[in-house]
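WARN retry 2 of 3 for item q-0093 after timeout on previous attempt; input resubmitted unchanged.
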Amino acid sequence: MRIIFYLLVMGVSAVVAFGGSWAIWKLSHRYRLYPKIRERDVHTRPTPRLGGAAIYFAVLIAFAIGSLFPPVGLIFQSNLPQVLGVLGAGLVIVLIGLADDIWDLDWLTKLAGQVITAGILAWQGVQIFQLPLPFGDDDVTLTLSPLMSLGLTIFLIVLVMNAVNFIDGLDGLVAGVAIIASGAFFIYGWVTSSGEAGQTDYFNLAQFITAALIGACVGFLPFNFRRNERHPAKLFMGDGGALGVGMLMATASVLLAGQSTPASTSEAVLTFLPIILPLAVLIVPLADFALAVLRRLRAGKSPFSADRKHLHHRLLDMGHSHTHAVLIFYAWTAVAAGGILLFLVAHWWVGAVVALVGFVVCTIITLAPLSRRKAVETAVQSAPAELAAEADVAAFDPLDAAAAAAENPEPTDAEAARALERLHEKEASS
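OK item q-0093 returned
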């Protein structure tokens, strides 16, 4: 029965996000509320970046409507400080993000705002108070000191916010990853609160947050997803949206982990999963974040300075189309989430095998353009020069002078495929 209430929360959030995104899109174009295209951007036309306001408003309305449902209202009665903390912190980070989207704030100001946001959450009781250690025959739980709890919570929330913000470079990327990741958190909370090792309260704040966030991202995604080159995203979530989404994901993760004492060693293993789950689900953005920080520090730059060397940029440079690159991120996220969640309902080796097979498939798909482009290069190099010139494929030979003079030395996967097709047609007709 409780799934109906969560679905209602998702539905309300989705409808409000869709309507809010449409209104912001219209108003942004009417009053030209969009920035100039930056060098690192992959879009080619000015696009409004205030979608984060619609996402936050949708979550806010979902909280307001949800509080009217008697069963769900128990969440607000027993966790009112945390609810107010989530909404207050969300407002702060969205306002900071919107200010950055409009005026381009410096990195230190943004970082200070993120720490304040995490501090508000911790002040209102959203903290990791203890860590289950599933080792040995006896139950072992590490209880953190107040200072350690505060420091760890702020660090993790700021880390996830930045990791999510760092991958916000392709249409629909953050919204889709957030839907998959939040869905994994929701399923985890559902399973652990329904089984023998679960919680006694069927309605909890962590699941409510994930339900509201899933609905908000679903409602926003139609305006943010790129169908093709002729129909790119109409609206970006901007830093206000990416940081806000990251904050809500981090909050749900903290609420799921570190706040309940496991009753048995087997339950400790399940309770430990919320710590592993966000790391697994966010493995790509966290890896991108770590690589970006190391790359910029080695270059003597601020770790928060912008560049065009993120993982999604590299996928585009490898030859993936915009949509394919986004779907690859979705696939990696889904495989990581699915593999971890299988530990809840099956033997550990089942999750390990599924995750391993999924990672292998994702790796093959990710690297596929390299093999196709290599095949084109080999075919062009082995073809007679006159035939390559007639097929207009000389630019695909990196050893040819035409390649150095070409305006696009890094052809896309589709361009490489068309070049190989032209070459085969010329070979067949000659």
